[in-house]
Amino acid sequence: MNNIRSTLATVWRIAAPYFSSEDKWAGRGLLAAVIAIELASVFLTVLFNRWNNVFYNALQERNQAVFTYQIGYFAVLAVFWITLKVYQLYLNQWLQIRWRQWMTARYLGGWLHDANHYRMQLLGDAADNPDQRIAEDTQRFVDQTLALGIGLLSSVVTLASFVFILWGLSNEAPLHLFGRDIPIPGYLVWGALIYALLGTTLTHLIGWPLVGLNFQQQRYEADFRFNLVRTRENAEQIALLRGEPAERTRLLGRFAFVVQNWLDIMQRTKKLTAFTASYSQASVIFPYVLIAPAYFAEKIQLGGMMQTASAFSSVQDSLSFFISSYRTLAEWQSVVARLHGFETSIQNADALLNRENIVHVASDDKGTIDLEKLLVSLPNGVPLVTADGFKLRTGERTLLTGPSGSGKSTLFRAIADVWPFGTGSIAIPANTTLMMMPQRPYFPVGSLQAAIVYPAEASAFSPDRVRGTLVAVGLPQLASRLDEDAHWNRMLSLGEQQRLGLARALLHAPQYLFLDEATASLDEAAEATLYRLLEEKLPATTIVSIGHRSTLEAFHQRNIALVQQGELFALRDRGEDARPS
Asked: What is the pLDDT of residue 576?
């Protein structure tokens, strides 16, 4: 019961915000319409039940007039039933897509808010494969929540409607055994209840492991897809290393988890299906077994017997909702757990920024980037880089050097306010613009124009200006392909990607430009040409570079280094060097 209450509380926490959102009136209206149609369908079921009595009595009595009338009456009921079912499905699907659209936008907003997606990776939270949780789990949650919710409501209303009918029929056709009536009030209701409770208990005992198995199956499937994407994204390196056999072995190893867990699901589902199918088949004949003695004792007519069987079936189906929906409930509970874990991971990433013992990045009016009592750590708390009273002065081109693994890139991330692990503060000039340029820049799939000007809109810069910038950075062959859609990180060499990244910097003209080995894949002559281009085109931009080539010193006015002091690396200013003109 505690598990059920916890699951329902989680479902409410996930589902309720939509019905209080900006789309609440449409959502509530559609939900109300779907519920109203379901209630109308239950009412029609009651009318069909009564029709059974009259129709079969007409057959028994060979009353053609009543028989003909009841055929027409059934046709009218059938038209209403079909109409209700068609519009219930249509409105249900409409509600599903609106609800899913809102949830997708909400989760994307939380995941991508203020670098949450990056911090979630650093924290190592259990929210694996966020793409699956946003794309698939939201769809399953909406679909299954509506199906189970409407199904449960229908079962409750059907039960309430037919219990009274079945109770009355129990009085009209009392239990008849061994040639005499046995007065048990509502014995048909008690028979349905006992039958359903027994079936529900056995179903749960057989099927409860499916909850965990379905959770793991979704996890293994998503992990397998993720590794397939990784293989596709790194096809060139795999081909150059002749790594296809290793990749095949690795991917089949991942898929082995999918297969083994699926086999476990198969075994458990086989047992569950064997029971539920037996239960379902027995439920067809069970009401006739109960009512047949009264019929053969001529206590009721054929119509009464058929109505009793129909009413018993409705009551029994309502009480057996748990049995018939068990597999869906198991899948649904795993989806709820995954979405809950995703929300928790987002909240943890958000909460990280509210801790006291983190690197605080704030704005000031000094005109410099100030590092005060700064200690940058790894996510596990191991200290990495320290700096105190250190300034990056506006308008000064600075080169940062140091051994590999000393924390140069991590220091850049802290300045960019995406690495909160550590203590101290970083002051950034107010209303300033920073751009970080990594060694491998990111380009979204789409037109070349959109890829270059990212994260701005494609229309933010004129095509002529973009073409001119491409020519300036040494990519004239791309100037005519601005409207071409492609996966540019796969289409272009790393050197071309770095040129394209610098083209982006030239277009955006940030006040601070941090180059993290952003020209490392270019030869020294090309690197020198591009640095001169930055000096010429961005004279007001403060450039801070990470690099290992000594030739870079000529393009910077200041050289600072990360020098090891015990277990830490500390920033040390090597003095200002006059740059040759």
From this structure: 44
